[in-house]
Amino acid sequence: MEKCELKDGKLLMMCDSLNENTETPSSGRAKGMTFWMYDNVKTGKPSRSFAGIKSKQFPNGLVFKYCPFCGENIGSHMVDGKLNQIAKTKSESK
Ligand SMILES: [Zn+2]
User: Fold this and answer.
1) What is the pLDDT averaged over residues 68-82?
2) What's the 75 CA to ligand 1 centre distance in angstroms?
3) Does residue 42 contact residue 93 with C-beta atoms inside 8 Å?
4) pTM, two decimal places
């Protein structure tokens, strides 16, 4: 992918650079750029995915509003005009 895309307005398809520079949060306490995928608990299908950063200041993560590589808006489905700290809940029923 040359540029990031929001598929169906909720699933982030990462551009190549972002894809290569993110980790998934399965590594637990890992810090740095992270890619999150939330599953719908009823269907087991991905409901939302997004990228952001985990740091000492934001241990649960902070959503990127824009891709740091291609500059696309990739957080509009997660962010309401201000920085959005990720809640601790890992799945959602919506
Ligand atoms: Zn990108």
Assistant:
1) 83
2) 11
3) yes
4) 0.79
